[in-house]
Write a structure and sequence with these properties.
single chain; alpha/beta; Cobalt-precorrin-4 Transmethylase, domain 1; 6-stranded mixed sheet; 5-stranded parallel sheet; 8 helices; transferase; S-adenosyl-L-methionine; EC 2.1.1.107; 4pyrrol_Mease; 4pyrrol_Methylase_sf
């Protein structure tokens, strides 16, 4: 009896939350999949697109608490595909931007399982668009950098070239370390008065956009009780965001930002 050929594992970007931002290809694959292995940030509206017969497996990750270790997720994808089941690995945002899609791709390749990657609108692109915050702008920024705010060895890294005049820095997973991030950037020479925007629950009905200055970032995140998922955007482009400005009372108590008009 011939062995069953492995099915393809599709690493599919679910976008930042709004189901209307899914690609046509993503919708088709979600509807056709026998198994959907999904992150916790994938909305119920998107999961509702799956076939009633599909098996939905949550592998939600939270800070310091994972429902399934990454190695086990990799093994699950391989096992399902080797059993001949069509698998969609549904990931918030884009699979290859802080989504560990590269690790899952490598595991499938090593096991001889075909892989296809379907890009999604990243959290940064989707959230910035809803906030009308241009990540690049001819008058404000010609470069943009994405970093992870929970990265190991934060204090050992040199961020001095990532934010400042003509540059935009987008920080994923930075809510819990916002105060440390602000201190690190200022220690590396970034102006305390540079504009900052925080984009919480991007593209969803409860999205919040808050704007302040870098020196106030840590206090503002605590004061406004910002929760994940949220992005931090550092740079002059943050001043373009349609945002609730939470800076007024703070600047009245400091000299930082007193001469800015944004």
């Amino acid at each position: 009896m011939a062995e069953t050929a492995p099915a393809t594992v599709h690493l599919v970007g679910a976008g930042p939350g709004d189901p209307e931002l899914l690609t046509i290809k993503a919708v088709r694959l979600i509807r056709d999949a026998a198994v959907i292995v999904h992150d916790g940030l994938v909305s119920q509206e998107i999961l509702a697109l799956a076939s009633p017969q599909a098996e939905l497996i949550s592998v939600a990750k939270q800070r310091s608490r994972h429902s399934m270790p990454q190695e086990d997720i990799n093994a699950l994808l391989v096992a399902m595909a080797l059993a001949g089941q069509s698998v969609v690995r549904l990931k918030g945002g884009d699979p290859f931007i802080f989504g560990r899609g590269g690790e899952e791709m490598e595991a499938c390749r090593a096991a001889g399982v075909p892989v296809e990657v379907v890009p999604g609108i990243s959290a940064a692109i989707g959230s910035a668009a809803q906030a009308q915050l241009p990540l690049t702008h001819r008058d404000a920024a010609s470069a943009v950098t994405f970093v992870a705010g929970q990265c190991k060895g934060l204090t050992d890294q040199d961020w001095s070239g990532l934010a400042g005049a003509g540059r935009t820095l987008v920080i994923y997973m930075g809510v819990a370390t916002a105060a440390d991030i602000a201190d690190k950037l200022m220690a590396d020479g970034v102006s305390p008065a540079i504009p900052v925007a925080v984009l919480e629950n991007g593209t969803r009905a409860d999205m919040r956009t808050l704007r302040t200055l870098l020196a106030d970032l840590g206090d503002m995140v605590a004061r406004e009780q910002v929760k994940s998922p949220a992005l931090i955007v550092v740079g002059e482009v943050a001043s373009y965001a349609l945002a609730r400005d939470v800076l007024a009372n703070w600047t009245a108590r400091t000299n930082i930002g007193a001469e800015t008009d944004k």
